[in-house]
Amino acid sequence: MRRTLAGLATTAAVVLLLSGCSDPSGTDQSASGGSASSGAGQVGGEGTVPKPFDTSSLSAVPEIAALVPDDVKERGTLRNGSDTSYAPAEFLGEDGQTPVGYDIDIVNALARLMGLSGATSQTAEFPAIIPALGSKYDIGASSYTITQERLAQVNMISYITVGSSYAVAEGNPKGFDPTDPCGSTLGVQNGTTQFDYANELAEKCRSEGKPELKVMPLDLQTDVSTKVIGGQYDATLADTTVIGWTVKQAGGKLEHIGEDFGAADQGLAVAKDDTDLAQAVQAGLQYLMDNGQLTQILEPYGVADVALTTAELNPSTDE
């Protein structure tokens, strides 16, 4: 994903974030980072946060609670770190302070199943989350694509699969061709899989003697979206879920273009040495999948179709 809702004006936060993101080439590498901002995850206008699934309807499941490490049980809360700039997965609510989104709802649901009093989700810079797992945070829910690099650092539990998509300004005034982006100016967020993929495309354009593909990386995906709307960039590339949400919130100022591609599994992250908690998260996610609550959590954000049916702990990747 990354992500970030800051960057437009105070009243018009953009949400095209891309960090943890899908893998456009099928060989994802990294997600993005960014700072949080105000807004309800909309582009160019006022927006509202969907009414989330009521996680208070869930109760502790003894088999899941038994897997929770003693220190987490004693604390009574599940501490989550999220880069709250990647709507609809994780962003800031209308008060500009409260983390919301389907990843936040999933963590709240897991805390209930684990028999804890609740979960706390804290806004964090994306690159700082994984290093802080096991100390500052118990879990990282921040649209992490599962990659070999990340699996070497942390435990990851799969729960959704997400592709990549392009977006352009309404009517595609720059004539961007998603099947041949050479000669275009493409905005992406720093540190994302889309950033890596865009640079691969740029090199391919050069090697084939085609017009230059200018890759314009910014730290905030919201800023990228603003420049697409304003005409400075021809298009942007982000997670399919992010593009879908942003287009909907943009009030006609952005539109999806081309086919979605490069679907890859995303996962929740847990410290590498915290096997017990990783297994508790896996069991909790599987419970949500088996009982239909995962799709119910995703539905208000319009992304129910990205849900997986099996929660795998440290699954193999195609890299």
In short, what is this structure?
With 319 residues, this protein is an alpha/beta fold.
Please give a structural write-up.
With 319 residues, this protein is α/β, with parallel strands linked by helices. The protein folds into 2 domains: 55-162 and 264-306, D-Maltodextrin-Binding Protein, domain 2 (3-Layer(aba) Sandwich); 164-262, 3-Layer(aba) Sandwich (D-Maltodextrin-Binding Protein, domain 2), CATH 3.40.190.10. Helices cover 27% and strands 23% of the residues. It is built from 10 helices and 10 strands. It has helices spanning 62-65, 70-75, 102-113, 126-129, 148-151, 193-207, 221-230, 240-249, 275-290, 293-298; strands at residues 77-82, 91-92, 99-100, 118-123, 139-145, 154-169, 185-189, 214-218, 235-239, 254-271. An 8-stranded mixed β-sheet has the order 4-1-5-10-6-9-7-8, sandwiched between helices. A two-stranded antiparallel sheet has the order 2-3. Helix 3 (102-113) packs across helix 9. The protein starts with 61 loop residues before the first helix and ends in a 21-residue tail after the last helix. Mean pLDDT is 85; it is low at 1-19 and 26-47.
What's the CATH topology label of the largest domain? D-Maltodextrin-Binding Protein, domain 2
Q: Main β-sheet, in a few words?
A: 8 strands, mixed
CATH superfamily of the largest domain: Periplasmic binding protein-like II
| Alpha carbon gap, first and last residue | 19 Å
Mean pLDDT: 85
Helix segment tally: 10
Q: What key phrases describe this protein's structure?
A:
319 residues, alpha/beta, D-Maltodextrin-Binding Protein, domain 2, 2 domains, 8-stranded mixed beta sheet, two-stranded antiparallel sheet, 10 helices
